[in-house]
Amino acid sequence: MIDVLPAVLLWLVTVWRAPAAWRDPGKRVLWIAFLALAVAITLRVPSVAAPMDAALGVNNLSALGKHLGCIVAAHAVLTFVHDMAHEKASGLKSSRLHLVFPVAAASIVTVLFFATPQPREAVDLLTEYASDWRIAVYGGVW
Known about the structure:
This protein is mainly α. The chain contains seven helices and no strands. Helix 2 (28-44) packs antiparallel against helix 4 (61-88) and helix 4 (61-88) packs antiparallel against helix 5. It is flat and about 50 Å long. The mean pLDDT is 90.
């Protein structure tokens, strides 16, 4: 039960903020952060992760989803902070280059995940397969 509580709370906040996020595009980035964290924390719950992996037939896919959710959440929070700083300092330049890093990280992590042989479901992907160089690089990039 204790594993489920953070996920439930994040989903409640995500649903609560959804109408405002769709009315005001300026609030959307923070809503995306909550949504990505809700997905990541939900995929952390063993009673969600194991059945999902079994249903999709890919060992540890929930771990990849969790890590991708964290990358999206981190990017959304940094964008939110940048937007807040931009309001205070009008000379601050915005760039689309900030998208390159999270997209590159997500792509590299995804390629390394599928390139690594994973014969069984792991409790912790990064420690159980740490002897494989691909998972070591995966962890470093993530």
